[in-house]
Write a structure and sequence with these properties.
The protein has about 300 residues and is mostly beta strands. Helix content is about 5%, strand content about 35%. Bound molecules: zinc ion (ZN).
Length: about 300
């Protein structure tokens, strides 16, 4: 990843590779210090340079181990890993000589997390990283004396390498986000609630009749909530003709939507509802409004008060 890079799909952050150039000097489950653990040692483009690395997701510092420049981080929310799993990420970074992480500090995705280094007996400048795909913070020694998390995954199953130059990937199956498509959140059959020309909609809710247009025989009313016009603009006839709604297809009700007996609308007192189905004739994205034809009259109302019932 690059400095400042973020990646969010369907409301979930993709867990990105924290390095811009990734040269793995020691892979997972290899000899000595990585035996039995899913850790990578990573240096940058040139050996010996303390390159920065970045927050793979928005994460919080849970623990620090200053002697080894080591920090335990956890994602603030669940994230998406490169194997498609969505879960919390708990991960360790080590050997940052200039470590300035403090417990409780939250680092947004893409902001600098630390620098590669040598603190804590490291051979050559690098960042040691291991990732648990869970919120489990247990940090225990295995039979070979190496510390690790539960639910650790190999790093190619953890991070996406968008904008990472994989200089030495040790043969891993490194994936970019486009290789792991996101299934959109299921929506009710035939209604995605994204209005467009042709959408079939109903009014959602109960609306106040703020004013009746004069003369009463015009059978039109103004509704500030549905149109965004002010009472004064209605009163002074400063609104457009499409801001007046025809009374006829609306039924009078109380504020809870129960029908009233007299069905006589009065400005400033009555509430109305409308259970008819209308077809969206046009959309104005800027004002988030939809044009409907109500009883032969074109009106514009805010889309948020319409409920899509079908796409066709
Ligand atoms: Zn290591």
């Amino acid at each position: 990843m690059l400095k400042g890079q973020i990646s969010v799909r369907d409301g979930i952050e993709d867990f990105l590779c924290p390095f811009t150039d990734m040269y793995i000097t020691q892979g997972s489950n290899s000899a000595y210090s990585h035996k039995g653990i899913m850790a990578n040692d990573v240096r940058g483009k040139e050996p010996g340079v303390r390159y920065p690395y970045y927050a793979p997701c928005t994460c919080k510092c849970l623990k620090t181990y200053p002697q080894s420049g080591q920090v335990m981080w956890q994602s603030v929310n669940k994230v998406r890993f490169s194997n498609g799993r969505v879960d919390y990420a708990t991960f360790m970074t080590c050997h940052d000589d200039t470590m300035d992480a403090k417990i409780g500090m939250v680092v947004p995705q893409g902001n600098q997390l630390g620098n590669m280094g040598t603190k804590g007996n490291a051979t050559g400048v690098h960042c040691h990283i291991e990732v648990s795909q869970s919120a489990d913070t247990s940090w225990t020694k295995n039979q070979y004396g190496n510390y690790h998390f539960n639910n650790e995954y190999d790093l190619d199953d953890c991070y996406f390498v968008d904008n990472t130059n994989v200089l030495n990937g040790m043969g891993g199956n490194w994936r970019t986000t486009d290789k792991v498509p996101v299934n959109p959140t299921p929506t009710p059959a035939g209604a995605d609630q994204v209005l467009y020309k042709g959408s079939k909609v109903k009014f959602n809710g109960v609306f106040k009749v703020d004013i009746l247009k004069s003369p009463i025989s015009s059978n039109l009313f103004g509704c500030c909530q549905l149109t965004g016009c002010s009472y004064n603009d209605y009163y002074n006839e400063k609104v457009k003709s499409y801001h007046w709604l025809p009374c006829q297809p609306f039924t009078e009700c109380d504020v809870n939507g129960n029908l009233t007996k007299d069905q006589m609308l009065s400005g400033g007192n009555s509430y109305v509802k409308n259970d008819n189905i209308y077809t969206v004739e046009d959309i104005d994205v800027k004002s988030n409004s939809a044009k409907l034809n109500i009883s032969g009259r074109s009106v514009w109302v805010f889309s948020k008060y319409l409920y899509e019932i079908s796409n066709n």
